[in-house]
Write a structure and sequence with these properties.
mainly beta; Pnp Oxidase, Chain A; seven-stranded antiparallel beta sheet; two-stranded antiparallel ribbon; 1 helix; 8% helix; 45% strand; extended
Length: 146
Amino acid sequence: MESYYPPVGFHFKVEFQGISTKDKDVSFQSVSGLSVDLETEEITEGGENRFKHKIPVRSKFPNLVLKRGMLIDSELIKWCKKALENFEIKPVDITVKLLGEDHQPLQTWNIVKAYPVKWNVGDLNAEESKLVIETLELTYNYFKVA
């Protein structure tokens, strides 16, 4: 009998279509926000006091949050700065790939029309010796799992 082992969550890459294909711009420490909720609307029916009907309305996607060690010369950060400082908003499609042992994609999330809404650089502290982490927060229309 063959045993199933779930994939590990630390072997992945994030690709931004049309921005950069350099290895440094696809490596991140963490990716969060790959979730979807179904919004509902409550309808009260006259004469029915035990419950309210919940009707599905639309899907809701949270912001995508990417973290990594700060890069000095990054095309991705140049794209973010154009959006956040100059309001040059150019949405791009993003692909998040969960990789297997052979470095081939096990699962792919195709994120549609993403653009930056926040860029954060971690605290600088002379009493600690840790990496400077930059955080990118992106909004997007939706994603599909391939």
